[in-house]
Design brief:
Length: about 270
């Protein structure tokens, strides 16, 4: 279990609490490895735009989990973490969860991970899509130093937040994926830097004489995104480029670059 914290904030009391329970690795944001990163929400106000971009790129990678702890102070967590979701955190009248005080709840359409007796959501797991990493948000103050006397329950609940065997399950799903020829055509278009998500069906027809519906083309494209062969934007990933090289498709990619017209058709 690789638990990471942000190096420049290691003196914060939240991290001192965490380190009293479990072994952690201190890393700069641009040095995060695969695994879990824990960050108090308030820290995100102190990050530069470049650091935020790096953090958001990291948690989207499959198998990674970003655990964000309170307080949120009604911050725009959606913008900070670039979440593809309608979500907000609001203050509520003081309540207890497993004897711990809760003063915020999460308003979201995402399925609750934890709820109060009154039905308010206090923890969620958010995935951008089936192949992405996860952001776990909780408003339960598990890392509050004032709760030292309750650290046993805090530690127990924290461990419940960790997603077990996610890497293993995702790896199995990826290993079972066998690209079809049309998947490979899409990858070649992406490698040639000509793939356009809005007209991918037309491009497949123009370049490869493959006639499929736009919705079917998007379904195939999403599968490549889920497998981390393409970015959400349609850009090819390092893994996708390695696949193209392994299959010997570089000459085809060069021809696409050389012979395409501006409208995406062969010359």
């Amino acid at each position: 279990m690789n638990i990471q914290i942000i190096r420049q904030f290691t003196k914060r009391t939240e991290y001192k609490m965490l380190k009293s329970w479990i072994s952690v690795d201190e890393r700069n944001i641009n040095e995060l490895m695969s695994g879990i990163c824990v960050i108090p929400a308030i820290i995100m106000f102190k990050l530069s735009e470049v650091e935020l971009q790096s953090l958001n790129k990291w948690w989207r990678q499959w198998g990674n989990q970003l655990i964000v702890s309170p307080p949120f102070h009604q911050m725009d967590i959606v913008s900070l973490l670039q979440l593809n979701s309608e979500l907000s955190v609001h203050g509520i009248e003081a309540y207890t969860f497993n004897s711990l005080p809760v003063i915020e709840s999460i308003k979201t359409n995402t399925k609750s991970k934890w709820e109060l007796d009154n039905g308010k959501t206090i923890a969620i797991d958010h995935y951008e899509h089936s192949g992405s990493g996860c952001v776990t948000l909780t408003t339960v103050p598990l890392l509050d130093y004032r709760l030292m006397s309750k650290q046993d329950i805090c530690k127990k609940l924290f461990l419940e937040l960790i997603i077990e065997n996610k890497n293993e399950e995702t790896t199995k799903n990826q290993e079972s994926f066998i690209p079809t020829p049309v998947h490979e055509y899409i990858l070649m278009l992406a490698s040639a830097n000509v793939l356009e998500l809005t007209v991918v069906s037309r491009q497949l027809s123009n370049f490869f004489k493959v006639n499929i519906s736009h919705n079917k083309a998007l379904e195939l494209l999403q599968k490549l995104i889920d497998q981390r062969l393409l970015e959400d934007s349609g850009s090819i990933t390092d893994k996708g480029e390695k696949y193209i090289n392994l299959k010997g498709y570089i000459p085809f990619v060069r021809e696409i670059k050389r012979w395409r017209r501006d409208d995406g058709a062969w010359r």
